[in-house]
């Protein structure tokens, strides 16, 4: 993360994202695939196998591939480049990424439980989850009960983040605030329908 000073003197925290160049690696149509989408790739894959190189013989061999929906499928051809020029400052975007993996976590860390009493002889109840349901009725644990388990490493969508600055020379996008995932992680950027709020 970094920070940017606006023209009115306000400082805004931003996340710097390298957003391109991305290359169109495949155009999917209703006739060939049953639906319309564009497959785009990012990053150079130096260790790609023969099938992957054959799939991307007409463009750069990309390491990461994603499918995206577009308004007009006829505007894209295999080998076309997509850069940050498609975005403008002030525009709202959604950032999709995988959150940091935390491993197996208890209910206090995972769900924010308070735990049990720290006194009155409750020596082993400090970080326990407490009751998880009745005995005879319902006689089972309800689905979705908040319990200990795997935390993080899941798909997160941060919606309505404002683009503060677009650097076309270095293919950088500066988005207001933080985004999911760790440094050097792969993210997906899409336009959102949320409107830009005026500063208070």
Provide the descriptors you would attach to this structure in a database record:
8% helix, 12 strands, 200 residues, 4-stranded antiparallel beta sheet, mainly beta
Quick recap:
This protein is mostly beta strands and 200 residues long. It has 3 helices and 12 strands.
Task: List the SSEs and their pairings.
Elements: E1 2-5, E2 11-18, E3 22-28, H1 30-33, E4 37-44, H2 50-55, E5 62-68, E6 81-82, E7 92-98, E8 103-105, H3 107-111, E9 149-151, E10 155-167, E11 172-176, E12 188-191
Antiparallel strand pairs: 1-2, 2-11, 3-4, 3-6, 4-5, 7-10, 7-12, 8-9, 10-11
Structural class: mainly beta
Morphology call = extended
Sequence of strands across the biggest β-sheet: 1-2-11-10-7-12
Helix and strand element order: EEEHEHEEEEHEEEE
Mean pLDDT: 90
Report the helical percentage. Answer: under 10%
Low-confidence stretches: none
Describe the structure.
The protein is 8% helix and 36% strand. A six-stranded antiparallel β-sheet has the order 1-2-11-10-7-12, with no helix packed on it. A four-stranded antiparallel β-sheet has the order 5-4-3-6. The chain is mainly β.
